[in-house]
């Protein structure tokens, strides 16, 4: 299946990982065009026109959420990032998603401008200009975006319920560990994708949409749950579920 929404190849250079958006070893970025495509499919499955509360429960560096917040500000009311790693992952996620707060991108542009002056490196000046463009884009689309960054084991419904904390996400978009640069961690990691999806679904309203992305030709079956939509682009596949369907899928094996 090809692209339905992102049918033209835009220049996403301003969103490159490691420029305006921060990166670190072990925290891969995600293809921007594909992120936008999956998000728009999820909006379509959800239906309606009200802005969504968007949650990534395997947020890592927060790159995916930050990109979607910038590209689709008008469609998003709030962002929620969570991860089991309270140190490296959530520190990085807070820095990236925090760019969408009041003055966040402007402060990043000033920081990069100072680095360009101090180290005389054109790359910093180019990144500072990109931060300025992203700041103007965000402002034109609705301005700063509320967000929260919280720790939670994605296999633990109690921890996930605490992380959601009354936000009531309408939509989940998440890129799960592939076992290459990233892998499942925590005491329940053996429950895999099935355990992760059923745990996440258990803390959502029944009509919430979950878009999960994996590397490979298809998303593995999740019990009896049938995706409302599937897509595959390049080396990645995505499946879109409604939370109520996953709640009826049956428990994961421990």
Q: What is the structure about, briefly put?
A:
The protein is of the alpha/beta class. The chain contains eight helices and seven strands; from the N terminus they run αβαβαααβαβαβββα. The protein has helices at residues 32-46, 63-71, 88-97, 104-119, 122-140, 157-164, 192-201, 243-247, and strands at residues 52-56, 76-83, 147-151, 171-175, 209-215, 229-233, 236-242.
Q: What is the secondary structure topology, with strand pairs?
A:
Blueprint lengths: L31 H15 L5 E5 L6 H9 L4 E8 L4 H10 L6 H16 L2 H19 L6 E5 L5 H8 L6 E5 L16 H10 L7 E7 L13 E5 L2 E7 H5 L7
What does the main sheet amount to?
7 strands, mixed
Would you tell me the overall average pLDDT? 92
**Count of discrete domains:** 2
Share of helix among residues? 25-40%
CATH fold descriptor of the largest domain: Rossmann fold
Total of DSSP H or I helical runs spanning 4+ residues: 8
End-to-end C-alpha gap: 34 Å
Strand runs, count: 7
- The strands making up the biggest β-sheet line up spatially as 3-2-1-4-5-7-6
Pfam families: AviRa (PF11599)
InterPro entries: AviRa, SAM-dependent_MTases_sf
Organism: Micromonospora carbonacea
Protein name: rRNA methyltransferase AviRa
